[in-house]
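pasting histidine kinase for the record, 631 residues
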Amino acid sequence: MSATESASAGVAAASGRRAGSLGRDLIWLGVLPCALAAVALTAWFTRTQLDTLETAFRTEGHAVARQVAIAGGLPLYAGDLPTLRHIAESTVAAHVASRVEIGNAGELQVDAGVPAAELRQARAFFAPVAVRSGDWPSDFARAPGAEPQYRTIGSVRVFLDASALRRERTISLTAGAGIALLALALAWLSGRHVARAVLRPLRRISSTVAALHGGRLDARCGPCGRHEIASLASDIDRLAERLQTDVQQRERRIREATAEAVARTYQAEQATLARTRFLAAASHDLRQPLHAMGLFIDSLLPGATPDQQPALERLHESTQVMSTLLDDLLDISRLDARVLKPSLAPVALSTLFGQLDTVHGAHARERGVRLLWRDRRQAVVTDPALTLRVIGNLVHNAVRNAEGGTVLVTARRTAGGRVRIEVRDNGTGIARVHQARIFDEFYQVGNPGRDRRKGFGLGLSICSRIAQLLDTEIRLRSEPGRGSTFSFELPQTDLSATPVNAGETPPPIKPLCCLVVDDNEAILDGTASLLGNWGCKVDRAASAEIAVDQLDRNGAAYDIVLCDLQLRDAEDGLAVIAQARRLAPQALAVLVSGATTPDTLRRLQRDGIPLLTKPVAPARLRALLATRRAG
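structre below
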């Protein structure tokens, strides 16, 4: 069987399975309502019939007992045993009752009929025997309006055979069950007929679609009745005709584009694979705990004791290093999405080198490496954050490869008004065979076992991309055994343009009303604690529904809305941002997320939504609040 025929058979089999399921659903749709109605009506009518039979039997028993009591009143009063026996035997002989017992409290007892020990299917009915009181000899002697008085002198017990009642009950139950089964059978037959009437044209349509899928463009559904399915079949036939008309043109175009498509497909697959692995390394779940950790640390720092301060500062530095690593991966996604724009500003290299020494100095001392910085009082125009990442990654690699040696970070002015920044080490060096691929993603020298403790091989690739964004290029000079030198150039500027030291105390923040939306309780607690330390009033929401409800009630009071992108139960933070813009237009709605996919970044850029990337540095959050205060 050819591949086309196999695909056609697979589509037909899948369609057959779907059709069979639809047939069962249609049968159930027809049978279930009828079954419920039939069972309910049959149960109601059968119950009514049984109650009627029971009532009639009881009424007859009580009536017979009362008649015998009335007839035997005077004979029992007079002690006329022959008359009483005659009444009892006459009642039994008339087949009105199976046994009759008449008696009083004394020794006067009369019975007739089947002995009581043999009456297994009989039911007894009682009636008192009463005679009129002797106070009035006749009705004429009774006072006007007075009721006649009776005195009970005995009792009558009548036994009626209940076998006939049981037979009638059995007949009623059998008839009810038969009617219900007949109704179910008719409903099933009707449902099956309807299902077949629907499934026949559907099977023809499925077969036609399978044939079209297999390349038989001349297949047609043909007539399929006069209902809506016929319209569907007609539309499929028209589509098949259109496909058959256009197939020659499409084949010609496909042949012309095949060569180019093959090459571009390979490139796209490689780019997609690299981007997927980048995004997996900087996933949203990895950023969540780091973000919460940073918030809690910064909320604890102001109130820490002198003994606690060094440990918290070290912990704060560690989280900043982790944040920097994750931000590198985020930058790759932004570069792929073409949404990362550098913020150029004049900056003194002494400031950058000082910050880098704080981060990498301890690491260098642990590995016995002498880390030297020579800024030569140079200043450049660049994006400070991106430049820090490039130099920091180069320094980290140099320290790791020059164990026991020296790493020199220096800057010198070159021709054309530019400053060359160099990172030199006297480590093992890089062979020429590796230098051509050293900036490729996931390529590592000296790590054939892919030990993840030595990194993922992303650092130099990230540096190369950021350098291109800064309109420069990273160059490498290296020889095995003689160390390596990485360098890149940036535009030079005057020192007077150097911005204010980043270590200045930030300006105070006006108390703001903030709404924080996140499904992570730790992040909610950390953000609320940090904002509370800054004098802000904070409302928290763990879901989109709670957030929209609070915006609907208190929208006019909010100044800032901080919302996570991925909320619980597949809720979208962008929907909350849209509601915030509608219900609280005066508030600044900001998305806080660790999502780094290019599609998400493009979407945020298109809608003009500010983004704070997890883990959020408290300084960035405070700067955002400060801009809101100024607004």
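The chain is about 55% helix and 15% strand.
Confidence is low (pLDDT under 50) at residues 1-5, 11-19, 447-456, 497-506.
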